[in-house]
Design goal:
This protein has helices at residues 5-28, 38-41, 69-74, 80-84, 117-120, 160-163; strands at residues 47-48, 55-56, 64-68, 90-94, 100-104, 126-130, 133-134, 136-137, 140-141, 149-156, 170-176, 185-194, 200-213, 217-228, 233-234, 238-239, 274-275, 287-299, 305-318, 337-338, 345-361, 364-366. The protein has 367 residues and is mostly beta strands. The longest helix has 24 residues, at 5-28. It contains 6 helices and 22 strands. The chain has a 7-stranded antiparallel sheet, with no helix packed on it. A 5-stranded mixed sheet has the order 3-10-11-6-7. Strands 1-2 form a two-stranded antiparallel ribbon. The chain is elongated, with a radius of gyration of 28 Å. The chain is 13% helix and 37% strand. Residues 1-41 and 112-116 have low confidence and may be disordered. The protein has 2 domains: 43-176, Ferric Hydroxamate Uptake Protein, Chain A, domain 1; 179-237 and 276-367, no CATH class.
Length: 367
């Protein structure tokens, strides 16, 4: 195929002009260091342990996404719901903080939400790992607050060989920052914000790293408190039982022996109309994440080290995280509104103790 000569000359002229301009700019400003150019700077290396060994993320032959601790701070990722926004092949079915089911590659474990789901449901097929320990719970995934993390790794499945039976669809790994030997450092970060149509938010995180024995022992700790304002309003409403629309009316058993094949069930005489005045208020769904994590690293020798970590987290989510188009009496509701007649909440508390020993036995690496 022959290229049009005019096009060829035009392309050559454009490329030549840009190359000359770039060369002139570099020569005209000798104060600019050579490493400042994109070609010289290269791509930042991201080290992961997705295959239970330290590797450059570009060398890992599996579908993986990795977020460094710096990236997580820049994206303001602190919870699982925040993280999901940046994962193109991951979705959740969420009833609120701490009540997520994660889906990768379109795969679902098929759990159905029930009042006893936390004890009888099957485990999700996406595993949550905090360092080297699984954080799976029946019917949902652990919502780990992203404080003082080295990185988060998202591995698409199947990953059962390295991460167990609950990782058919994939794994999300929270890798924490480890204690640093011979380094004394600390930081405190805080934030304040406003929720549109709701209450304000505030957050504070403090981190400290202390060496105890030179080249041998160090400890690291992080404490966090994140208060998120609610934005769902519980609107005052009334509810009157109606035999034509109340799908639960058969529980009234009136008249005696009523049922689908006999006399239709009816509302018992004198059934009262109820209201939610005692519960009606604005911003009923605040969320609080509070926790602490302390770890100690013992460098036994050049080949062996031991890391022990103790983590506590308390997540308290009040109210609900959905809206209703109509109230219980059929009246249209404004956005971000519900009519609830009972308190709703989710209190999710966990503690985790982990001991990891790393070393070598000859040419083999042991964990």
């Amino acid at each position: 195929m022959k290229m049009n000569n005019k096009c060829a000359h035009a392309v050559a002229a454009i490329l030549g002009t840009h190359a000359g301009a770039a060369a002139y700019a570099a020569a005209a400003d000798p104060s600019v260091p050579a490493e400042a150019s994109p070609s010289a700077a290269g791509i930042q290396e991201v080290v992961v342990t997705a295959q239970r060994r330290t590797e450059n993320v570009q060398d890992v032959p599996i579908a993986i996404q990795a977020f460094t601790g710096e990236s997580l701070q820049q994206l303001n990722v602190t919870s699982l719901d925040d993280l999901i926004r940046y994962l193109p092949n991951v979705a959740t079915a969420s009833a609120g903080p701490g009540q997520d089911q994660i889906f990768m590659r379109g795969l679902s474990a098929g759990n159905v939400a029930t009042q006893s789901g936390g004890s009888i449901n099957g485990f999700p097929n996406v595993a949550i790992y905090l360092d080297e320990q699984s954080g799976q719970l029946p019917g949902r995934n652990l919502d780990v607050y992203a404080a003082d993390l080295e990185r988060i790794e998202v591995l698409e499945g199947p990953q059962g060989t390295l991460f167990g039976a609950g990782a058919q669809a994939g794994v999300i790994r929270y890798i924490t920052n480890k204690p640093k030997l011979n380094v004394t450092e600390g930081s405190v970060t805080g934030g304040y914000g406003v929720t549109a149509g709701g209450d304000p938010n505030s957050a504070v995180t403090a981190v400290v790293n202390l060496p105890l024995i030179r080249d041998t022992l160090a400890v690291r700790g992080v404490v966090y408190d994140d208060q998120r304002g609610g934005y769902i309003n519980n609107v005052p409403a009334t509810f009157t039982r109606n035999a034509a629309t109340d799908i639960g009316i058969h529980y009234a058993n009136y008249p005696s022996g009523c049922g689908p094949t006999t006399t239709p069930c009816q509302v018992p005489p004198g059934a009262p109309a109820i209201n939610n005045n005692a519960l009606a208020k604005n911003a009923i769904n605040p969320v609080t994440y509070q926790g602490v994590r302390v770890s100690a690293l013992w460098n036994i020798n050049d080949e062996w080290n031991a890391l022990i970590t103790q983590s506590y987290q308390n997540m308290d989510a009040e109210g609900v995280f959905y809206q209703m188009p109509k109230s219980s009496d059929g009246a249209p509701l404004p956005g971000q509104s519900v009519t609830l007649f009972n308190n709703s909440y989710n209190k999710d508390k966990f503690e985790n103790t982990a001991l990891t020993i790393n070393g070598r036995i000859g040419a083999l690496r042991a964990v």
